[in-house]
Request: fold
Amino acid sequence: MSRSSPTRWCAGSCSTASAPSGSSSNGKGGSSGPHLLQLSGVGDPDHLGQIGVAVAHALPGVGKNLQDHFLARVTAEVTGIPTANEKSRGMPFVGELMRYVFSGTGLLTYAASLVAASVKVLEESATPDVQILLANASFAPGPIRRLDDKPGMTGGMWQMRPLSTGYVEAKSSDPHQAPAINPRYLSHDTDRRAAIGGLRAVRKLFAAPVLAPYLVGEILPGANVQGDDELLHYLRQTGSTVFHATCTCKMGRDPMAVVDDELRVHGIEGLRVIDASVMPAVTSTNTNAPTIMIAEKGAAMIKTAARQRLAA
Reply:
């Protein structure tokens, strides 16, 4: 790669920097990164043979070990207190827009959640194992994500250290065809127990006496959904990604590792992977800050290597 060739790192948002001469970096992320490597002939020889890609370098771990946080929500209708649901439409929204323009406050400054809790739901866990995100809003039931017409609140939960792993695999040699992505959510029994416990933990928070004056009733999963099997069915039907796809080009020295501790692809000179896919295991909470750290550390490694070559 020439000195002026752009290299992209994805850390929350993508930025562009110039790669030093003699180096190349893949910063495409947890799904696109392994897909790009596979299309380039770097990956599991058996898989590459199936899609008609010649093997340039055998690395069976490319695209394996996909980890993600699996999110499911408990929602409830509330009364006697304003929520984002009714503020997000009509004249109330006009008021929120003016509030933001003139004071920089209000609904348009809210994050996806306003409060987070780390809780322990599994007896064998030594530390908290579920994160709960609380928001003064709720989605209307159905496949389309729109805020409900009634005032509501939501507790979204995910298991912090999932054990289920999946894969990213190119479907063909065509770079325009999206890869197959299967996180295999809830395939491990510990994950299923943690997710069920997480829903019960949200319900326990919603049942707190301080919320009693405002709580009308649970909307989802619904008061009639109580047993473990019923909650697991609800999880499978409604759960989704938190967009924390990671670990598909994991760092390490074992046979399934893709990069070393300097993010260099095993067995390929001058190629690094610099994004969340190099994590050996997904971080226990949000991946944004760790991914920024990986990008900054990777950039420093490239600069150091370039200086060493110039000094040689």
Notes: The chain has two domains: 6-65+245-311, 70-81+113-241.
